[in-house]
Design a protein that fits this description.
The structure is a homodimer.
Chain A: H1 3-11, H2 15-19, E1 31-36, E2 41-43, E3 52-57, E4 59-66, E5 69-77, E6 80-81, H3 84-88, E7 96-99, E8 103-108, H4 110-119, H5 121-147, H6 150-166, E9 170-172, H7 177-184, H8 188-200, E10 204-207, E11 210-213, H9 216-225
Antiparallel strand pairs in A: 1-8, 2-7, 3-6, 3-8, 4-5, 4-7, 9-11, 10-11
Chain A binds a DNA duplex (30 and 30 nucleotides) through α8.
DNA sequence: ATACGTATGTGATTTATATCACAAATATCG
DNA sequence: CGATATTTGTGATATAAATCACATACGTAT
């Protein structure tokens, strides 16, 4: 992996700006790219954290598995930083990251990342803006989980997958009913019933994990009303 | 408000580092301090956003009021940045901030804040670390709201107020039962019942809005088990 | 293809909690 | 101070969703 590629990829900005920084010549020496297949673990909770993980491509779930129950917190789609908090906020990963689709991840040493931030204000501002937007999303998730009932949550999950993850009203749910339930806090049985109902009323067409949203306005209403 | 005071307060770092930055001499010209009494609005959703708000002292709730129902998303305690996302992620505030206790807030122009970040890498890194820790907290909130039942949520709310907000096992809840319910997604009636039950079993001592946690271990267990 | 394990669908029942209704306590204001 | 509004507590009931139980479908490996 050449230095130029690394800079362009990680910094998301033109190389002229990157070259301003003396620290950058070492980026490609402190960064490694790894490929993951669906189901493979990228990092594990309770492991000492390995540094910053940048997702180059793919889709990942952040989850935690306590007392035999898997609980999914977020999906993260490339390109983005994967769960920075696990890297900066604590010395031990508090969550597990698992690939849902074929994924390429770049591992950057924490000291290198820190150097990039400190020496490159534009890069720092980019990261801060991205984290801020993420907090907005977190607020939305909180509203969804805290104040809606099951069909509202399912509606919201489908809209999220369509709008934010796949950018298409037809998609294949990247996990089982069980996992979908673990994500939005509903049992797999209720998920089945609600999807069947949405299917019967023509809001979606559903066949196994394939979903097509047919009546987005109605789905949005259901999500709104909770 | 002198420049020196502003720098020390906002940057949380020694003035030597601050002085490195040419932009800083203008901080005190682009920053204003305002006092708020409990119940007063600091900024309102749907208003064009005024810049970055730094909380110097006090306690604030971030909430949103749709269809006559108030929904509380987070509490934010000084010193900290108040809901940066509303400033950076969008041009219009998506949430309302209201003081719960007497609060001092500093309003910083967005361009000034940006300049601080871009020119002061250490400051930027501080902000990024703080935002990362906030995301950790958000994950915790999601687990709490999404996967726990009412008594677990109430237990968690009490522990949060004791540990994170007041740093004392005895405190006065800064809002009504209704608001507490709006925060954790439980009706005020259920809140009453659960607090009465905690009181009866000796986990807490409760009188009106005054709370003392008597058996923290048990409360933690209830919060854990959901 | 067959067999085994896993995932999914669906009914019956139970349970937690929202809703409704009203009383009591507390705060606010003239 | 009394009158009114707001907040809180508590019982009865309704309801959403979990749990339990089992059937069916699907996937994978031999």
């Amino acid at each position: 992996m050449s230095q130029k590629l690394c800079n362009e990829c990680i910094l998301h900005t033109d190389s002229e700006i990157c070259l301003r920084n003396q620290g950058l010549e070492s980026l490609h020496n402190h960064c490694s790219k790894v490929k993951f297949n669906p189901g493979e673990t990228i990092f594990k909770e309770n492991a000492i954290n390995a540094g910053v993980v940048y997702l180059k491509s793919g889709l990942v779930k952040i989850h935690t598995c306590t007392q035999a129950k898997d609980r999914i917190l977020r999906l993260t789609k490339a390109p983005s930083y994967l769960c920075l908090p696990s890297s900066l906020g604590a010395s031990v990963n508090r969550f597990t990251a698992t690939a849902l689709e074929p994924t390429e991840a770049c591992f950057i040493e924490l000291s290198t990342f820190r150097q990039l931030i400190v020496e490159n204000g534009d890069f720092a501002y980019q990261i801060i803006t991205a984290l801020s937007q993420r907090e907005m999303n977190n607020f939305h998730v909180s509203l969804n989980l805290g104040q809606k009932q099951a069909n509202g949550r399912v509606a919201d999950a489908l809209l999220y997958l369509a709008n934010d993850i796949y950018e298409n009203d037809s998609f294949v749910i990247p996990f089982s009913r069980q996992e979908l339930g673990d994500w939005i806090g509903v049992t797999r049985e209720s998920i089945s019933r609600i999807l069947a109902e949405f299917n019967a009323t023509g809001i979606i067409r559903q066949e196994g994990r394939e979903i097509s949203i047919l009546n987005k306005e109605l789905l949005e209403q259901i999500s709104e009303k909770g």
